[in-house]
Amino acid sequence: MTTGLRERKKLRTRRALGAAALELAVTHGLAEVTVEQIAEAADVSPRTFFNYFSSKEEAVVAADVERARDMGERLAARPAGEPVLASVRAVMREMLGDAPRSREWIAQARLVRSEPSLVPQQLAAYAASERRLAAILAERTGLDATDLYPAVTAAAVMAAVRVATTRWLESDEHGDLADVVDRVVDLLAAGLRDAPSPGP
């Protein structure tokens, strides 16, 4: 689907505001950041800011929605006959291989862990992302949008990615985040039928 010039400009503005909000919050702390500072960093007016976001907290977690949009577009471009979870694995590998976007992802995850006030906004972003992913999966599989399969698969994928990111951060960021994502996708692909053998 071709995106018009107006929509592309709006998307660029939204992304610029989200990136500015995240960078300022990471640098100075969320409490010290104002909407005016975010707008100035993105070279727009505060009034324009409120055309896109209701609060600075919503802007800080906006990258979650953008990642879901990116994931959906990449999934839609995968080979039609490819199994859904194989496509998810490939797409996640691609996204984590994009160094700037990966750094943004990690910075946001760290910030949310340190700023409890961001949790409600992040949960809202996850819900929006999940709905978008479910719609993409329904289209990809030829199923109705109300079918359980795309809804459950989207919810499972979003939860798995969230768990993988949290677990990686809790492990002092040892190893490759993409490897942790691979492991959670393996669990989904196995249908969670059998628990792994406990370690020593």
Automatic annotation (TrEMBL):
InterPro entries: DNA-bd_HTH_TetR-type_CS (IPR023772), Homeodomain-like_sf (IPR009057), HTH-type_TetR-like_transc_reg (IPR050109), HTH_TetR (IPR001647), MftR_C (IPR041347), Tet_transcr_reg_TetR-rel_C_sf (IPR036271). It comes from the Bacteria. Keywords: DNA-binding, Transcription, Transcription regulation. Residues 34-53 bind DNA. Residues 11-71 form the HTH tetR-type domain. Pfam families: TetR_C_14, TetR_N. PANTHER family: HTH-TYPE TRANSCRIPTIONAL REGULATOR RUTR, MYCOFACTOCIN BIOSYNTHESIS TRANSCRIPTIONAL REGULATOR MFTR-RELATED. This is TetR family transcriptional regulator. It comes from Actinomycetospora lemnae.
